[in-house]
Amino acid sequence: MEVDRQKKPEKVIGPFGEALSLDDLPKSNTTRWVIRRKAEVVSAVTGGLLSLEEACERYDLSLEEFLSWQESIDKSGLPGLRISYLSKYRTEYRARQEKPAQTGSQSPRDPVTDLH
Predict the structure, then answer these.
(1) Torsion-angle region of residue 60: left (phi > 0), alpha (psi -120 to 50) or beta?
(2) 89: closest CA among 68, 61, 104, 112?
(3) Distance from first CA to last CA of the chain, Å, rounded?
(4) CA 10, CA 25: separation in Å to the nearest integer?
(5) Burial classification of residue 68, based on how many CB atoms lie within 10 Å of its CB (0-12 exposed, 13-18 middle, 19 or more buried)
(6) φ, ψ at 20 (rounded to 5°)
(7) How far apart are the C-alpha atoms of 80 and 72, rounded to whole Å?
(8) Which tens digits make up the pLDDT trace of 84-112?
């Protein structure tokens, strides 16, 4: 028995309210990912124009990279897709992650035993 596959839409609503078709999406050889292009790909996947797997294959993206774009939009809107914005928050996140490691639960070293 063949499973009915849901028909993909011909167009979806893009990040700026415009209609997007497959022809409107960035070219598959895109290497410069500006905010608009990232948002268009996320909109295409969210709207069902492309599957997640198709988008990753078409644009040579890792699953993590695509999901980071989607998460950035969900958390911060389109400005979250800016590289400088991402870098700022990644740096802050890493600093928070490293801080506990530096002040971890290790007992202080005894300077007297270090001399022997």
Answers:
(1) left
(2) 68
(3) 78
(4) 12
(5) middle
(6) -120, 130
(7) 5
(8) 555 555 566 667 777 655 555 555 555 44
Q: Mind giving me the DSSP string for 4-71?
A: PPPPPPS-EE-TTS-EE-GGGSPPTT-----HHHHHHHHHHHHHTSS-HHHHHHHHT--HHHHHHHHH
pTM of the predicted model over 0.70 = no
C-alpha R_g of the chain: 22
Task: Return d(Cα 25, Cα 19) in angstroms, integer.
Answer: 11
Distances (CA, A) of 20 to 10, 26, 110: 8, 11, 66
The 10s digit of each residue's pLDDT in 22-81 is: 999 999 999 899 999 999 999 999 999 999 999 999 999 999 999 999 999 999 899 888
Query: d(Cα 16, Cα 112) in Å, to the nearest integer?
Result: 66
